[in-house]
């Protein structure tokens, strides 16, 4: 009992160590690219998610069940006990037989228990990869939603800034009306544009709450808990975009290797199952004394037994062996398919990341030109000439470029998160 308790403690320690290592790997994978200020907020969210996310907890419990099954297979067949009473007592030289007691224990062939343990351990190792996959997917989900939240908040700030700018233009228009350089239509156009921006801000606020709910669900907490983000998020001017590849150490691929290994262990187990089982037993027969004196009168019978169980009809094992061969080929094909899907996903993410950076640079240039045009219009007001139609056009372009820059930044980091998930 003490030895078994010690083994269980060692197993729990190994599970904790594995979880700690997995958390460290996942954390390093996704935090390397993120700016320090952003990582502080995102780090807190990810830590909370890894601690209490239902998907991870479910995968962890399934792994614990699979690990405990290693102890389940470490057993011998049931010991057989028998008791028989002679209704018609057969006579022997030493007396009539009264009853018979027997005990028998079958033992598997040498190495059979070890083979079962190895098979159960291989299944548990394959199940463990589900934890690593769930952790990576959670980190990616939280990160993706975090960047969505950042983009939403940044867009709201831009909208508010544009609303204030329109209010300023409205003041200029009212002043121009007094001197006959504008009319009421210009003011109404500015007010309608301001109303459109108010509508967009209200919509963004609702979308913000929806994204916040997604994050809170990943963290397994109330959907109304507030989530704060930082606005200091930019695309780096210079970066090293080294060529990255999908490796066999990725959990989604490694899991197929572990499943393949479990089938290999199943083959070893089948080989042991074909071997005979050896049985040891003991029969005891109670003898009643005869009325006349004889040698060994009433002496009981004690008979040791040795038996062998041979699987003569072993078509079941042959079928299972064929099934294992097919299963191994299936895992090979599934791994190849998964690898191809991951490679395609990685290539798409890299191209989208490059496209996001191109878009960011282009929209930054356009925004600078739009602001320059805005300055020209404001200076023209000082000379008494201003076209509020041009003002609205420039304001709309400026808003478009600002939002496009935010979208490009969001896309850049979301694609980088996918790349990290696939390659780290």
From TrEMBL:
Record InterPro entries: TolC-like (IPR051906)
A GO cellular-component term linked to this record: cell outer membrane
Keywords assigned: Cell outer membrane, Membrane, Transmembrane, Transmembrane beta strand, Transmembrane helix
Localization per Swiss-Prot or TrEMBL: Cell outer membrane
Bilayer-spanning residue ranges: 21-38
Superkingdom in the source lineage: Bacteria
PANTHER family in alphabetical order: OUTER MEMBRANE PROTEIN TOLC
GO molecular function ontology, one term from the record: efflux transmembrane transporter activity
Name recorded for this polypeptide: Heavy metal RND efflux outer membrane protein, C zcC family
């Amino acid at each position: 009992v003490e030895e078994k308790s010690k083994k269980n403690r060692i197993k729990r320690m190994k599970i904790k160590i594995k979880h700690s290592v997995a958390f460290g790997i996942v954390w390093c994978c996704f935090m390397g690219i993120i700016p320090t200020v952003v990582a502080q907020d995102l780090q807190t969210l990810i830590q909370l998610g890894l601690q209490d996310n239902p998907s991870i907890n479910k995968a962890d419990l399934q792994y614990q069940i699979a690990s405990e099954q290693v102890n389940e297979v470490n057993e011998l067949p049931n010991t057989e006990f028998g008791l028989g009473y002679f209704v018609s007592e057969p006579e022997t030289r030493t007396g009539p037989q009264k009853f018979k007691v027997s005990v028998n224990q079958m033992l598997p062939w040498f190495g059979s228990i070890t083979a079962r343990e190895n098979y159960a351990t291989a299944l548990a190792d394959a199940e463990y990869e589900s934890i690593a996959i769930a952790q990576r997917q959670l980190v990616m989900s939280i990160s993706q939603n975090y960047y969505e939240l950042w983009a939403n908040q940044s867009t709201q700030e831009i909208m508010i800034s544009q609303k204030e700018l329109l209010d300023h233009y409205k003041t200029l228009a009212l002043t121009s009306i007094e001197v006959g350089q504008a009319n009421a239509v210009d003011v109404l156009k500015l007010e309608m544009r301001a109303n459109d921006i108010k509508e967009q801000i209200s919509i963004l606020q609702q979308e913000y709450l929806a994204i916040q709910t997604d994050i809170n669900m990943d963290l397994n907490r109330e959907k109304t808990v507030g989530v704060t983000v930082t606005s200091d998020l930019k695309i780096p001017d210079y970066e090293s975009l080294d060529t990255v590849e999908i490796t066999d150490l990725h959990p989604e691929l490694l899991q197929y290797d572990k499943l393949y290994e479990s089938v290999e262990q199943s083959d070893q187990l089948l080989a042991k199952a074909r071997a005979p089982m050896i049985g040891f037993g003991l029969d005891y027969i109670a003898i009643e004394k005869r009325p006349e004196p004889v040698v060994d009168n009433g002496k009981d019978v004690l008979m040791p037994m040795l038996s062998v169980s041979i699987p003569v009809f072993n078509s079941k094992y042959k079928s299972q062996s064929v099934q294992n061969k097919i299963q191994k080929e299936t895992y090979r094909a599934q791994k190849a398919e998964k690898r191809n899907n991951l490679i395609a996903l990685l290539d798409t993410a890299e191209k989208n990341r490059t496209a996001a950076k191109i878009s960011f640079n282009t929209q930054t240039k356009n925004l600078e030109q739009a602001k320059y045009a805005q300055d020209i219009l404001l200076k023209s007001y000082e000379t008494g000439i201003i076209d509020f139609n041009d003002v609205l056009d420039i304001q709309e372009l400026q808003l478009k470029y600002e939002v496009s820059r935010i979208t490009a930044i969001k896309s850049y980091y979301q694609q980088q998160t996918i790349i990290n998930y696939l390659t780290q």
